[in-house]
Structures
1.
Amino acid sequence: MSGKQQIIYWDTSVLLAWIKDEPRPNNEMDGVNDIAEKIYKNNIVLLTSALTDTEVLDSMLNDSQKQKYTDFFKHPNCQKVDVDPKIIQLTSNIRDYYQQQKLANNTPAITVPDAIHLATAIYYEANEFHTFDGGKKGGISLLSLNGNVAGNPLVVCKPPIPPQPSLNLVINKDVHVQEVIEHNGNIKGHEEEQKKETRPKRKFDFE
């Protein structure tokens, strides 16, 4: 993995939201599309597990959506990584940790697929793990693990929504454009007057 570019991990929930262009609340798709744009511009590396292929195929995509998914991972900055023995071991550690938490505190357990995604992000030192998983089918909310996944530091969040230009900036920009237009109009008018003043008189010109 590149040590210079930011590594973002997408779990299946975010990938499916992007593929389907889901109508999500609070402008959440702006964050997804912002990350996708940065990927296409080679500003960040997107990482996910090869497990995602199985989960995506189970989601009943139409042919167009399947093609969108396939084409996306043809981009060099989109990488799917295999579940190798090191990731399996880390997955097992994560599962054991939350299983013990469940027995001790009656908290939700973590599913094997979610543990694989988290283990992959941790192993490859992703800067952020993006998910929309706030808890499902009695499982643990992945978003609730932000900062600490079974003792491993990991930022877990929704794709950040890019800042929008403030109303004042928009107004100031419009005022500036209008001032430029008026300024250029005044210059043009002044130049026309100068041309009239400097133009030599002809026989049919009157005072």
Note: Confidence is low (pLDDT under 50) at residues 201-207.
2.
Amino acid sequence: MFFKIIRYFCNQLFVNIIMKKRIITFLLGLISISLFAQDLENIEVSIITCDPGTEIYEAFGHTAIRIYDKTNPYNYDVIYNYGVFDFYQDNFIARFVKGQTDYTLACQSTRSFFRNYKNENRSIYEQTLNLTEEQKKHLIYKLEENALPENCEYRYNFFFDNCATRPYNLIKNDQYTFTGKIPEITFREMIMQYSSPNYPWGEFGINLLIGAPADRPASIEEQNFIPFYLKNFLENYKKDDQSIVSEGHYIYHTETAVTQPPFITPTVCFSIILIIVIILTFVLRNKEWNYIIDVFLFTFVGILGCVVFYVSFCSEHPCVFPNYNIIWANPLQLLFGLSLLIKPLRKYTTNYHFFNEFILFIYIFALIVIPQYISKSAILIIFTLLIRSEFVIGQKLFVKNKTKK
């Protein structure tokens, strides 16, 4: 009951905040509309890039658009932020897993935006864009159109439609070309640059859930889903040898915050589990212990398999299908783990272990040709499963041969 009351007040607080933001957005919109009636020569448009934060969803940094009057910022200075989402919306977790998270374009004062990032000790870098008055007018019009209540929400897509890709799509111009060196890097490698080593469990989950499509090289424009790649892209985005960025400088500069990684990383955790399983399997050799090990091990992997299956086949997330992790982490592992709790079904244990061993060996040999990265943690889990299946099969064959003699 206590938590329901707290949740109610949090929801009411969030509703009030959203209403206030929409009022502010409306008022700022009225101000921006008045810009069309005056000279835009003094209006500056810039791209703001913010450093990563301490939370996993802040690990990749952030991008926003700033529009202000350079002669008098107090007169007009606003941020258009495509990265606003609501933790309290109905079924947020379920919608997030299914890839149905809606983000909002928020218009807010630049001072409050900067204050938030300074309080979190995250650097803020500004790139002033070299735009004509006509380009500025078009951009402001599109932003205000997108900020309308009926248009401000959009279906978030981590790789292809996020806080960095939206600003880029607004300023993209066919007259400009990228003149720098194109990095040869895959989507997964780009993610791992920011998730490792500070967020090892987040990295494990990401590598488990995103599939083979994430291992193809990203084009230079596709790389702009990461804010810092967009920042570097704009420096080399040129027309007639002139960059679209007229000036770049730090609004606030600090050392990049380093999140202390947990002592128990996935690699450490699954290494310990592997050692424990080896000891319990080959040293104790207790039949009841064997069942207990398999119940926990296969149930755990089966739960991972259910998540992989759901995200791969039921979600709208990009780059999650095909996902070859489904071969070793699948719902069948969960059914087997739970079936061991039913004694009459234990007589079929060896049959499943034969099947599991066969599938795992195929997967291991197929890794040579499978176009998908597999993490060290996943390899440790696979070897743990193999040890259990090998032991049970070997024990069964030993007993069978002994009986024949």
Note: The longest strand covers residues 43-50.
3.
Amino acid sequence: MNSGISMIVLLVVFFFIFYFIAIRPQSKQRRQHQEMLDMLKKGDEVLTVGGIHGTVAGITENWIELEVAKRTRIRFIKRAIASVQSVEEDEEEEEYYEDEVVEDEVIDEFDELDDEDADEDSEE
């Protein structure tokens, strides 16, 4: 009789431990993700679970349309959105692209100089 009661108490203790370690944190995370999805609006920068970055171009109840490049849109189920990108991350990307543009301009200048040299060589 005593071992039966201790077995039941042990099972109840294991259930509570399992609840606080696994079930409760997962339900909290699921609720936060759903709140994030509910707050999405057109123009938000998002990241999908597949690693695709895009801008929200349209939203329905279960679907979201992302613009991933100029005039290129992809349709996803809403649950595929992993996160909304923050403004700070966008600013860092813009700085990177600005550096890239400067490098491209320098390369273009060198190409123009090479073209001019080639024209001069062909005239001689």
Note: The mean pLDDT is 79.
